[in-house]
Design brief:
single chain, 178 residues, globular
Length: 178
């Protein structure tokens, strides 16, 4: 289910993503132009995640990462990539990652035909997780760095166990002005 706050934050991104994916599908670009536009879609998806977490979506946390974070008094469910250097100064312990790789989300977006469809794809596909660097290395060694047709199976094969996802926060307010 798409929460009100999630949809509110997604909407300006969704319109731009719809316009960009339509351009990719309909306009005649050379290889370089197509690559830059697709890159722009990927950046938009990543920046949207920066805005959504943890305000409108909680990141998941692996059991191993949760144990290491608890030992240093950190609640990873409230942390983002941008706050990581506060508790993991060299990004040496934890890895913040997209459970469904961004490239897979971008591919799904190319089939959307409306802003609502974009928001739904983002709601279904955007899952971020805190895992340990060791868990990330295992995923990478198994070939799952950028391609995970079945993220659950990839995580299971790598021995990464995610704690149950918290429900999306749902805020009654639509903006913070009032």
């Amino acid at each position: 289910m798409v929460t009100t706050r999630f949809a509110y934050i997604c909407r300006p991104f969704a319109q731009g993503l719809l316009d960009k994916t339509r351009a990719l599908n309909e306009l005649d670009f050379d290889k370089h132009q197509r690559a830059r536009l697709r890159e722009s879609v990927s950046v938009d998806v990543r920046k949207l995640c920066d805005m959504l977490i943890p305000d409108a979506r909680h990141p998941q946390v692996s059991v191993a990462a949760a144990e290491q974070a608890a030992a240093i008094g950190v609640d990873l469910g409230q942390e983002t990539w941008h706050s990581q250097t506060r508790f993991d100064p060299k990004r040496a312990v934890f890895h913040y990652e997209h459970v469904n790789p961004v490239s897979q989300i971008v591919n799904a977006l190319t089939y959307a035909d409306s802003v609502g469809a974009i928001v739904q794809i983002l709601s279904d596909g955007l899952r971020l997780a805190w895992i340990t660097k060791d868990e990330d290395a295992r995923l990478t060694a198994l070939g799952y760095r950028h391609k995970r047709p079945d993220p659950g199976a990839a995580y299971a094969e790598a021995g990464v166990v995610l704690l149950p996802a918290l429900p999306d926060p749902d805020h009654d307010r639509m903006d913070r002005r009032g």
